[in-house]
TrEMBL record, chain B:
May antagonize Nodal signaling and subsequent organization of axial structures during mesodermal patterning. The gene is ncln. This is Nicalin. SUPFAM superfamilies: Zn-dependent exopeptidases. It comes from the Eukaryota. InterPro entries: Nicalin (IPR016574), Peptidase_M28 (IPR007484). The chain crosses the membrane at residues 12-32, 519-540.
Length: 225, 560
């Protein structure tokens, strides 16, 4: 619509990241370059994923409007590389668990925000046509910040050598859930033909529940033993 | 103060976490109501006439448009694009919009014009010349309705109608939920087309006999006219005239191929262009024939010129003359034959002669025969209309369904029979008045008429659109050269210094309707986002509380 509208969307998308960085104490650790490194790792991982997908998953030429469940499932499985990447970032940083998790998640999510949402916002939200999808996209970026924090925490817990055996199962289940979250959401939206706002709300709720369970596990793991 | 606010927030967090989490998003979600976001709609619009004739400007003078849409019900129309539907269109509303200095007018035509009630058709036909008679500074466009355009119209109508009657809160809510539309045309500003050629086609059948045989010219202009050039299909005016002209060419070419029926008259067929612009094509044709060449058929011995105009409907026929024919002339003989044939063979047709003197003070000539009468050639026009002022001749609603093929065939027969009786002098040879010549092998072919009509009305034939290489003209030439000899084109170009007619381009454009929101909506959204960011700031700031809460909850079972 106007530059003002772009400003609105931009603020909605980026300020929560800024706030999180400033208030979580990351800025006091001088963690900026570490976050940038995490972002660079994100880029590498995405490149590898794309190469892999392009090589082994030819474009599906099915009927228009149909949903390729198996293909999408396989693609979601490739997202395993994200978990590896997060682990890589965390293993190269020394420090407390929370610090490692925050650096990895912030770098990762910010890199995603810059790479995948900056351009559409710049092109779309400034156009004449008004569309709610840019506001939705900005809200979605906030959700994905929470999502990556939870995933980073889960990866950290899973890779700990001193993880008690009775924690192993819930952590693995949660990891699997968050990895296939996007795929499951897509299926759900497709089957129940949901509007974009309902889908967004559902995504927020699911991410909230996942991160809350993750936080509970984390808290009891850190302070439990 | 911030601490106090923080405390309140802490308490809220302590009460239940999911509640606060769910408060953030729905706060934004509720303010922005769940509307389906649609892409911009793109549709074709046809601009109103834009031309100068004899130094006078007509129609809309502008083609660029970039304004927000409204309907006439809105309070303020200035610099807005006013949408109107043909079904509830009236000249008063149109004038009201222009008086309030509207930025543009878009008139939405129904997709199926044939289904329009007769009174609306009549009303619009009366309005059309009035719209064109005045010069309009803002662009006026016509669009054909489709589902999306109708939905845009209805949303705009709802938004326009609710203005000024609601409270401030309602207005605020309205800005968030309602859609505005920004109408944008993609084309450039209209400019005069230089060196436009108006083309006419001539063909002839030479009579049998000596050098200076009398000539009968049969003339019909092929171009159409309406409030928007791209919508002018001109079925009755003057597709019907051209159809009859071509059928007469076919019939007489058959008569002229046999020596026994080869008459002593030259027949000159002329499909003129620019007929709706004061008969420019005819004017040039006459100048070429009378002033420039040494000998031509029109110079020596012209029996009469028969103009065909608007003959596809109704049970009346009128012979328009500018001077009543004198007794003993061929003109008079033709009139007598017409009367006799109609009274003896087609009693359902009402026939009359209409006498109207040429008014040189008027801007345009009334009928095509006046062009010839000015040059002292005996001429008349046959038409089913009683007056040249009828809106019927200049309407975009003059479509294929306005022409009845039965009537067209009957009129062709009447004219053909009368012409034949004059050419072969049958009355003086004591042929009976109900002698039917064009029957059996020689009969008027309805399929042929229908096909020609279909072809003519298959495309808009406004003078601005038929350029000299257009398929319409080449097909017309091809058709005429099948039956006639010496078929050739005549071109008219307006004088550079003092042009008699000037056409303008950008008559068809693509218009985009962009969904937009008012500026106040952006402010409202900015407030909501600021509130949300404030909330997330507190949430992050006090994350420790959540942490402790979870710690307490998850430890309790173990202590028991």
């Amino acid at each position: 619509m106007t530059l003002f509208h772009f400003g609105n969307c931009f603020a909605l998308a980026y300020f929560p990241y800024f706030i999180t960085y400033k208030c979580s104490g990351l800025s006091e650790y001088n963690a900026f370059w570490r976050c940038v490194q995490a972002g660079a790792t994100y880029l590498c991982v995405q490149l590898c994923k794309m190469l892999f997908l392009a090589t082994f998953f030819p474009t599906w030429e099915g009927a228009v409007g149909a949903y390729d469940f198996i293909g999408e499932f396989m693609k979601a499985t490739v997202d395993l590389a994200d978990l590896l990447g997060l682990h890589l970032v965390m293993s190269r940083n020394a420090g407390k668990g929370e610090y490692k998790i925050m650096v990895a998640a912030m770098g990762w999510a910010t890199a995603e925000l810059v790479m995948s949402r900056c351009l559409p916002l710049w092109v779309g939200a400034r156009g004449i046509e008004f569309d709610w999808k840019y506001i939705q996209m900005s809200i979605d970026s906030n959700i994905s910040l929470v999502h990556y924090m939870a995933v980073a925490a889960l990866v950290w817990m899973w890779t700990r050598y001193d993880l008690p055996t009775h924690y192993r199962l819930p952590v693995t289940v949660l990891l699997g859930l968050s990895m296939y979250k996007a795929f499951l959401m897509d299926c759900f939206v497709h089957i129940f033909i949901m509007g974009s706002w309902t889908a967004l709300l559902l995504k927020a709720v699911i991410t909230g529940v996942l991160s809350l369970s993750c936080l509970t596990l984390f808290v009891s793991l850190v302070h439990g033993n | 103060m911030l601490e106090e606010a923080g405390e309140v927030f802490d308490n809220m967090l302590k009460a239940s976490f999911p509640l606060t989490f769910i408060v953030f998003l729905p706060a934004v979600l509720l303010l922005v109501s769940p509307l389906q976001a649609e892409a911009a709609h793109e549709f074709t619009v046809y601009r109103m006439q834009h031309y100068d004739l004899q130094g006078q400007s007509y129609g809309t003078r502008n083609s660029v448009l970039n304004t927000e849409a409204r309907t006439v019900q809105a309070d303020v129309l200035s610099r807005r694009c006013v949408l109107m539907r043909l079904a509830d269109f009236s000249f008063e509303q149109y004038q009201k919009a222009l008086r309030q200095s509207a930025g543009a007018v878009v008139i939405i035509l129904p997709p199926n014009m044939a289904a329009l009630p007769q009174d609306i058709v009549q009303q619009f036909m009366d309005i059309e010349p009035e719209m064109l008679s005045m010069e309009t500074q803002v662009p006026v466009y016509f669009a054909v309705e489709d589902e999306e355009l109708l939905s845009i119209y209805e949303q705009t109508l709802a938004a326009s109608a609710s203005q000024g009657t609601s409270s401030a809160a309602e207005v605020l809510l309205h800005t968030a939920t309602a859609n505005g539309f920004q109408m944008v045309t993609s084309g450039a500003q209209s400019k005069a087309v230089s060196d436009w050629l108006v083309t006419s086609v001539e063909g002839r059948l030479t009579g049998l006999g000596a050098e200076d045989l009398p000539t009968i010219a049969i003339v019909a202009h092929y171009d159409s006219f309406g409030v928007a050039p791209w919508l002018s299909y001109g079925a009755d005016s003057n597709g019907s005239g051209v159809t009859i002209l071509l059928e007469l060419a076919r019939l007489f070419s058959r008569l002229y191929t046999y020596k026994r029926t080869h008459a002593g008259y030259n027949l000159l067929f002329f499909a003129s262009g620019g007929g709706k612009f004061n008969y420019q094509g005819t004017k040039r044709w006459l100048e070429d024939h009378l002033d420039h060449t040494d000998s031509s058929l029109l110079q020596d011995n012209v029996a009469f010129v028969l103009c065909l105009d608007t003959l596809g409907n109704g049970d009346t026929l009128h012979l328009h003359v500018s001077k009543p024919p004198r007794e003993g002339t061929l003109q008079h003989a033709f009139l007598r034959e017409l009367e006799m044939i109609i009274s003896s063979q087609f009693p359902e047709v009402k026939f009359s002669m209409v006498h109207k003197k040429i008014n040189l003070a008027e801007d345009t000539l009334a009928w095509e025969h006046e062009r010839f009468a000015i040059r002292r050639l005996p001429a008349f026009t046959v038409s089913h209309l009683e007056s040249h002022r009828s809106g019927h001749r200049n309407s975009i609603l003059d479509l294929r369904w306005k022409v009845d093929t039965q009537v067209l065939a009957r009129n062709t027969r009447i004219i053909a029979e009368a012409l034949t009786r004059v050419i072969y002098n049958l009355t003086e040879k004591a042929a009976p008045s109900d002698l039917q010549i064009f029957t059996q092998q020689m009969q008027v072919q309805k399929e042929q008429l229908d096909a020609v009509m279909q072809w003519l009305t298959g495309q808009p034939r406004a003078a601005q659109l038929v350029d000299k290489d257009s398929s319409l003209l080449s097909t017309l030439e091809y058709y005429m050269s099948r039956y006639l000899k010496d078929v050739k084109f005549y071109h008219v170009k307006a004088d550079k210094r003092d042009p008699e007619f000037v056409f303008y381009d950008q008559l068809k454009q693509t218009m985009n309707a962009y969904r937009v929101k008012p500026a106040i909506f952006d402010l409202l959204l900015a407030l909501c986002i600021a509130a949300y960011l404030g909330l997330s700031y507190f949430a992050v700031q006090n994350f420790g509380l959540l942490y402790k809460l979870v710690q307490r909850v998850s430890w309790k079972p173990k202590q028991q």
